[in-house]
Amino acid sequence: MATETRRLAYAPYSGYQVGAALVGVSGMVYSGCNVENASIGLTICAERAAVVKAISEGESGFQAIVIVTQDGATPCGACRQVLAEFNPDMEVYTAMPDGHYARTTVKQLLPYSFTLQR
Ligand code: THU
């Protein structure tokens, strides 16, 4: 699903396509791709696109995310923080189109993430 959605990426500026598939606790899977903008700074990463889609459809939590890029890249810092908001123990699978992948967790990618003490 991440590979399929990667093909939908809107990346005319970088040419770097990212596809994500986010597994919700409900069992539903939500896809996302990167959506770039001429102002560059307004670009939305695939991971955050998937999170926004899922939450706005009523999902309440996440177990895992699969991210497909040409080189198996790990999520950027902003996306790590957004994923940590929902589940630091979330499994993160970084994969390439040929099926090679690595597994890690959000906590491993972003130890000591920012949280509000409420
Ligand atoms: N990108 C993502 O979609 N996810 C990340 O975690 C890192 C970067 C996108 C943003 C931009 O469209 C392109 O990859 C190159 O930075």
Description of the molecule:
This protein has 118 residues and is α+β, with helices and mostly antiparallel strands. The protein has a single domain (2-109), classed as Cytidine Deaminase, domain 2 (3-Layer(aba) Sandwich). 25% of the residues lie in helices and 24% in strands. The chain has four helices and five strands; from the N terminus they run αββαβαββα. The chain has helices spanning 2-6, 46-56, 77-86, 106-109, and strands at residues 19-24, 29-33, 62-68, 91-95, 101-105. The chain has a five-stranded mixed sheet. The mean pLDDT is 97. The site of tetrahydrodeoxyuridine has 13 residues, from α2.
Key structural traits:
4 helices; five-stranded mixed β-sheet; 118 residues; alpha+beta
Strand order of the largest sheet: 2-1-3-4-5
What are the bound molecules? tetrahydrodeoxyuridine
Taking all Cα atoms into account, the compactness measure Rg is 14 Å
The class by helix and strand makeup works out as alpha+beta
Number of discrete helical segments: 4
Which percent range describes the beta-strand content? 15-25%
The CATH superfamily appears as Cytidine Deaminase, domain 2
Q: Class in CATH?
A: Alpha Beta
Q: Enter the CATH topology name.
A: Cytidine Deaminase, domain 2
Domain unit count: 1
Q: What order do the helices and strands follow?
A: HEEHEHEEH
Number of strands: 5
Can you tell me the overall shape?
globular
Q: How is the main sheet built?
A: 5 strands, mixed
Instruction: Kindly state the percentage of residues in helix.
Output: 25-40%
